[in-house]
Structures are given as structure tokens and as C-alpha cells.
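Fig. S4 source data, part A: sequence.
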Amino acid sequence: MKNTKLIFSIALIVIIFAIKPIANWVSEQWNVDLSLVVEQRRNFVIVALAWFLIILLRRIKRQVLKHYDITKEDNLKSRKLYTQFNILEKVIVFVIILTSIGLILLSFESIREIGVGIFASAGLAGIILGLSAQKVFGALMAGIQIALTQPFRIDDAVVVEGEWGWIEEINLTYVVVRIWDKRRLVLPSTYFLEKPFQNWTRSSADIIGTVFLYTDYNVPFDALREELKRILDNTDLWDKNVQVLQVTDSKEYTVETRILVSARNSPTAWDLRVHVREKMIDFIRENYPESLPRTRVVLTNPNTEKEA
């Protein structure tokens, strides 16, 4: 079933090359004039070859990519190849279609003469058209550049425009980001070359998650570290690599404590952060309620101050 289109396209090319004797035979047998079909044989060959090349290209891509599983945990190499093949496939298909259309149009004498006349007498219009298409070609070049340099890949976890999600599609002129709540953020390819964005899985799938706690100054930090260790030892979300609790800031009313924990990928890191935050807040509330953030107000007796 997978080879049906490929075999059919090859058979179609063979039939087109033999279309002249077939047309002559049909004309003799049924007295049908197929001269127009014979005259356009070249164009039929161009269309059939273009179709054959596109099908062959996609078949080669499938054969290569079936050896790389993008769903496994350590899928950096697979994502890299998927990104390269998907974008290069779109570039090659675009070139094939554009070239085929150009060759077909050039086969018509009237269209070719009109085109020559337009280019000869309307140079200014051509310049204006080129300027108006500058953004389109810029987007195309940006897509090709992304395929070659790969600032991100298929299924990379990114933060773009304040939204966290995964790269779902990389096309020639635009990129689709699947947001964590199943929305889709569509951005032009040039965006990723002109503006900064966060790529959480640029070099590997594992990631470090951050949790911030804000407590009163009298919170016992050693007890928090022991509780953090207990929480991580009892969850499968933690990959057992990073476990850090540090006091990172002291403000007017609270102390800022930062917790660093690691996970095997970004979705798991998100779940781990939520889990650790919830359990740490429960621990503080149940065991050290006096260490929750509070505002202190000192009341003084004016009479006592006067006596003093």
C-alpha cells in the first residue's frame, strides 16, 4: 500500500512518454482527435516527474526517520533529524513545484511573449513587486536558516511571548508552538531570528525546575532541607540529580527561599515543581505556622513614652 503512489507515478511517466503512439492508435480506432494531448506531452511529463520526485522524497524521508524514535526520553538526535528533514522537504517541494510551473508556462508561446514584454517595458513594476515580496522571501530564507542552524527543533520546550509550550511545526514561513493548555501560537520564522526566546531543551531533554518560597524570618532552614529530601525521595518525578535549597533574598517582611530540582524532561519538571511547592507549603503550615509570611505592627503607649 505504501508503494502504490510511487508505482503509479512511474507507470504514468511511462504512459506519457508513449502517448504519441497511443494517441495515434486511439485516433485510428475511434476517430478521436488527440493532437492537443500529444502537443502538451512535454507539460504532462513535467507534472508527472514533479509528482514522482515529491513522492520519492517523502518515501526517502520516511525510510530514514523510521529508525529514529522521537517519543523516547533521550530524543535529541531524533528531534534534530526530524527538524532538518521536515524543513528541507518543504524547501525542495517548493522548488520542484515552482520550477515545474515555470517550465509549463514557458512552453506556451503567447505567455512567454507577454512575459518578455512585461519585463522589457515595466521594470519599475518589477522593482515594486520585488520590494513588496521582500518579507515573503525573508521568511523563506529564515525557514532555511532555521533548518541549517537549528536554534530549536521539533518538540523542543520553549518560552515565547511569555507562553510556555513545545515546538509542534516548523514550516518555511511560520512556526507553530503548542502551548501547555493546548492552544497554538503561530509565529513567523523571522521572529525567532530577530527576538530572544527561551529554549529549555536546546542541548538535552533533562531540565532543572525552580520553586520559590516566601516565609517569615524565623523559619528553620535545616528542617526545610530535610523535608525537601523526604519529598523527593518519595516521588518518581525526580531524576535524583539536583536537590538544592538556598536562601536567595531577604526582604522587608519575608525571606525568599529558592528550591532547585531536576527532572528528565520539561513536562515532568513542571509536575515536580508543582508537587514540591504544594508539599513544602503543607509542611510549613502544619509544623511551623508561625513561619508563614506575616506583617508586624508594634503598638506603643504614648503616656509611657512621655514618662520615659
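Fig. S4 source data, part B ends here. The two ends are 99 Å apart (CA to CA).
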